[in-house]
Amino acid sequence: MKILILCTGNSCRSQMAQAFLQSFDSRLEVASAGTEPAAQVNPKTVKVMEEAGIDISHHKPTLVDEYLQDAWDYVITVCDHANETCPAFLGKVKHRLHMGFEDPSLAAGSEEYIWSEFRRVRDGIREAFHKLYVEKIKPQL
Predict the structure, then answer these.
(1) Which of 15, 18, 76, 136 to pair with 7, CA 20 to 30 A apart?
(2) Which residues pair with residue 77 across a beta bridge?
(3) pTM for the full predicted model
């Protein structure tokens, strides 16, 4: 099963979601991309995923255009509707879903607070994507 996860920068939320889905089931082909990809995955994202036991230090942000010619079973947007425009995907897709999460890279305040926001978003993504995997994806495998 092929799953594409989209956001704007492809440096935080979509990277987390991709890594969690891949960790749930090695049979899944999961990619992530952004409409305006950052130069690198946010270092705080790499660190909080490491805390969760997943190494994404080798991940690189990717432009969504690289995946337009592929057919996908699921395309899932993870942007926060309140604060940003979610990317549209014009490629071949069976199921389109939106699962909105705040962008932890926009958190302001003390370092402790910023780290807590990255962890909160990470944990929310893990929980939501595990539920999606168990309820919708796994039964189709």
Answers:
(1) 136
(2) 6, 98
(3) 0.94
Going by DSSP bridges, is the β-strand pair 2-7/29-34 parallel, antiparallel, or unpaired? parallel
For the stretch 45-62, pLDDT in tens is 999 999 999 999 999 999
Segment 122-138 shows an average pLDDT of 98
pLDDT, tens digit, 9 for 90 and up, residues 92-105: 899 999 999 999 99
CATH number (domain holding residue 26): 3.40.50.2300
Q: Write the burial class of residue 90 (CB in 10 Å: 0-12 exposed, 13-18 middle, 19+ buried).
A: exposed
Domain region containing 53: 2-140
Catalytic sites, residue numbers: 7, 79, 86
Which helix (DSSP H) or strand (DSSP E) does residue 33 occupy? strand 29-34
| Cα Rg of the chain (Å, integer) | 14
